């Protein structure tokens, strides 16, 4: 998304979507295709309940996107997002574990940022980091 630009021509601002939007949309489409496939694998599942759960997952996903996006600018905000999303605001959460997850997220984002967007767009081959190494 950082590749999006705003250009000014003839005193008008023009917003141009970069490859970041395309890559983001592909990731989101893959997520929902995976969800749909897994729902189909639930033999005998009540369709109304499955639909309700997918709707709830969608709402949680949207909230997580906003929280993590805000957290990109500050470790405290990211830690708060991790605590909400991973630990459901539990008072029993270990601060060291949250710190480890924040460090892992920062490292993963740093590695992804090194990949040219054209490589992500046309030949998305990369290896996800392991949280066990952090």
UniProtKB/TrEMBL annotation:
Domain Ubiquinol-cytochrome c chaperone: 19-120
One GO biological process term: mitochondrial respiratory chain complex III assembly
Pfam families, sorted: Ubiq_cyt_C_chap
Domain of life: Eukaryota
Gene Ontology cellular component annotations, sorted alphabetically: mitochondrion
PANTHER family on file: UBIQUINOL-CYTOCHROME C REDUCTASE COMPLEX ASSEMBLY FACTOR 1 FAMILY MEMBER, UBIQUINOL-CYTOCHROME-C REDUCTASE COMPLEX ASSEMBLY FACTOR 1
Name this protein carries in UniProt: Ubiquinol-cytochrome c reductase complex chaperone CBP3-like
Species for this entry: Papilio xuthus
């Amino acid at each position: 998304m950082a590749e999006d630009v705003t250009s000014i021509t003839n005193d008008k601002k023009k917003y141009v979507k970069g490859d970041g939007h395309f890559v983001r949309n592909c990731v989101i489409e893959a997520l929902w295709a995976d969800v749909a496939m897994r729902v189909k694998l639930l033999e005998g599942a009540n369709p109304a309940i499955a639909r309700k759960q997918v709707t709830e997952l969608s709402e949680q996903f949207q909230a997580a996107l906003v929280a993590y996006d805000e957290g990109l600018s500050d470790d405290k905000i990211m830690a708060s997002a991790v605590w909400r999303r991973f630990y459901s605001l539990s008072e029993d959460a270990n601060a060291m574990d949250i710190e480890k997850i924040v460090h892992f997220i920062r490292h993963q984002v740093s590695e992804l940022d090194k990949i040219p967007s054209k490589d992500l767009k046309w030949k998305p081959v990369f290896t996800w980091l392991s949280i066990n190494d952090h």
